[in-house]
Input
Amino acid sequence: MNRFDTLFYKFINKVATEEEEQELFNMIRKPDDDENLRALIDEVMQQHMGERTMNNHSAEKVLSVILATTRSQKRVVRMDIRKWAVAAALLAVAGCIAAWLLHTRSTNASAASTVAASTLPQVDPAKQGALLTLEDGSTVSLDSLHSRPIEPQGGTRVSVKNNQISYDDRNAKQVAWNTLSTPRGRIFHLVLPDGSRVWLNAESAIRYPTSFEGKERKVELSGEAFFEIAKNEKMPFKVSIDPKTELEVLGTSFNINAYKNEEAMRATLLSGSVRMNAAQAPGTVLRPGEQAVVAQSGIKVLQADTAKVMAWRHGIFNFENADIKIVMRQLERWYNIDVEYENSIPEITFGGKMGRDLSLQNVLRILEISKVHFRLASNNKLIVTP
Output
């Protein structure tokens, strides 16, 4: 048994000294023993699977356990432990290693073009913040505006408090249009004049009036947002995605993913009812739990994996059955990086979940253990290599 194996088993059997634990963590930090680490974790799982049931919260925290298996000719990467049944010994090792990964900071940045995740500069995950564009074109940064009113818009009071912007139109005299946009690496929460709530994901924007008048309430969205709509049967709520695609609702909750660089626009209904008016299939009605997938080829209505759709709202990356391009697009938006592929794009299918509160360094370390190769270039560019 080599030194790595010895330290590993001493650790999970709780007989390792502090010095030995630190030695093990230092070895895990480097990619040299990744093959060994995967094999040992897999061995422990096979020996002890089913000995202990684990709740969701604990399972999500075990972020450093990665299982790599081969299916057909594609590599499948597991980014978390199995969700419901996990051995007590695996919980001990994975939990402690995850905690170490979460709190370790690299102090030695590499100058080489090809780098290990542990040598990358620290890049924090997305945080609260947005840019508010007013009717006159002026902008207000909401990154540092914590709790004070903004200049009234057409008589409507605008305030920011607890990372939320809200509107009070009881004294509105005229309608102005505002745009709330989140750049990469930012998210924000909006309360519309009618009390409807909108959570914007990173790299998204919503344009809306400061007061709703007339026969409908209409907003325009790009990117991704989750909506909870205040019920008003006399004023249907409409979300315009583009000139040809619109959602019409009365009172409901739903998620829209309409990023320009995704293959399709996806609208997922959580409660209530919505009508999708798209050029491909006007008047398509969704029921709770259904998802409309709108692409150039047409529109499909599918049963949605609502847990996966809502993962971003719950602070989780859900990469179940996602290919590397889908994963990297999410990382681009969340960490404000640009991803490029050198030569061919690796045929990798991911599975599992991990927290969105991880630094980019720790996310890449997880990928690194799973044999995803990359190097860091200038201007926050990550190049994925074969």
In short: Residues 88-103 form the longest helix (16 residues). Confidence is low (pLDDT under 50) at residues 48-74, 80-114. The two ends are 32 Å apart (CA to CA).
